[in-house]
Automatic annotation (TrEMBL):
Protein name in UniProt: Autolysin
GO terms, molecular function: N-acetylmuramoyl-L-alanine amidase activity; zinc ion binding
Matching InterPro entries: Amidase/PGRP_sf, Amidase_domain, Peptidoglycan-bd-like, PGBD-like_sf, PGBDSf, PGRP, PGRP_domain_met/bac
Peptidoglycan recognition protein family domain residues: 4-135
Provenance organism: Shouchella clausii (Alkalihalobacillus clausii)
Residue intervals of the N-acetylmuramoyl-L-alanine amidase domain: 16-141
GO annotation, biological process: peptidoglycan catabolic process
UniProt xrefs under CDD domains: PGRP (cd06583)
Pfam families (alphabetical): Amidase_2, PG_binding_1
Signal peptide, first to last residue: none
Lineage per the UniProt record: Bacteria, Bacillati, Bacillota, Bacilli, Bacillales
Family indicated by similarity: Belongs to the N-acetylmuramoyl-L-alanine amidase 2 family.
Length: 295
């Protein structure tokens, strides 16, 4: 009998009540990737709940890049394969495995989790399948290590996974990935280096040009013209200027919460904290003086 791995509670808040699923009813364990290169369990939960209109995250369990296993819906009916949720459990993995590699830590954690689920539900390693086996999709992606996963489970050589410690900061990696997708290539290393800051400033200058016709040189170097072109960004704002604000706040040591481009409670609190630290009026609005201090 497989040992239950450590499964963390992510503190997710679901809309309404979930429907339990009996272990005896489970026939398949379905593996998924999120098809997004950076989203963590909280990003996925928010998307499934607020954009899809579901109760919350559709997966029963979730595995991060570092191999940490989280409970999603647990042993409740999921929302991960249309028309097949009543007899399956879904395991979601952070990343887009059509473009990214599945990490060793994810493989080991996936083997430990699936081995335990197989044992609990009286299944076999062959009952571990991909989303694409039940629906017309590429999920869990060409880089998902399905053969290795099944071999580890069937071979019984599974031990408690030890989450890895990837280099750098996860938030900064999200910022760097966003910069690359925007068109400013930087190394995705999770480090608060000068090239990352320069890329953030380039986006800021470009967005001021696009949205307000500022006519700035997009060189990543803040100067008098960039400072003068600043606009007020406040609670309720959404989009790339808010992402720039969130990135600069984090670079300055003030965590705005999710890097989502939405100016909510977390971003406002971070702006106020930054303003207070810099001796500015702490009104929670990113105006000219706040932008200048951040840049």
């Amino acid at each position: 009998m497989a040992i239950k791995p450590t499964i963390k509670n992510a503190g997710l808040s679901f809309r309404g009540s979930l429907t339990p699923i009996a272990k005896s009813k489970v026939k398949k364990i379905v593996q998924h990737h999120m098809a997004h290169q950076t989203w963590d369990i909280h990003d996925v939960h928010k998307f499934h709940r607020d954009s899809n209109g579901w109760a919350g995250i559709g997966y029963n369990f979730w595995i991060g890049f570092d191999g940490t296993i989280y409970q999603g819906r647990g042993f409740n009916v999921g929302a991960h394969v249309l028309n097949h949720n009543h007899y399956t459990l879904g395991v979601g993995y952070q990343g887009d495995f059509t473009k990214q590699k599945m990490t060793d830590a994810q493989l080991q954690a996936g083997a430990a989790l699936n081995a335990w689920l197989v044992s609990e539900c009286n299944l076999k390693a062959s009952d571990i399948i991909g989303h694409k086996d039940l629906a017309s999709t590429a999920c869990p992606g060409k880089n998902f290590r399905m053969t290795e996963l099944r071999n580890l489970v069937s071979g019984g050589k599974v031990s408690e996974p030890k989450p890895s410690n990837p280099t750098g900061d996860a938030f900064i990696r999200q910022v760097q990935t966003w910069l690359c997708n925007y068109g400013y290539k930087v190394e995705v290393d999770g480090l608060k280096g000068p090239e990352t800051r320069k890329g953030i400033v380039k986006v800021y200058q470009n967005e001021l040009n696009k949205q307000f016709g500022a006519g700035l040189a997009v060189d990543g170097i803040p100067g008098p013209k960039t400072y003068a072109a600043a606009v007020n960004v406040r609670r309720g704002a959404k989009g790339n200027l808010t992402r720039v604000l969130q990135a600069l706040l984090y670079m300055s040591g003030h965590n705005p919460g999710p890097f989502d481009g939405a100016f909510g409670d977390g971003t406002e609190k971070a702006v106020r904290a930054f303003q207070k630290a810099k001796g500015l009026g702490a009104d929670g609005i990113a105006g000219k003086n706040t932008w200048k201090a951040l840049l």
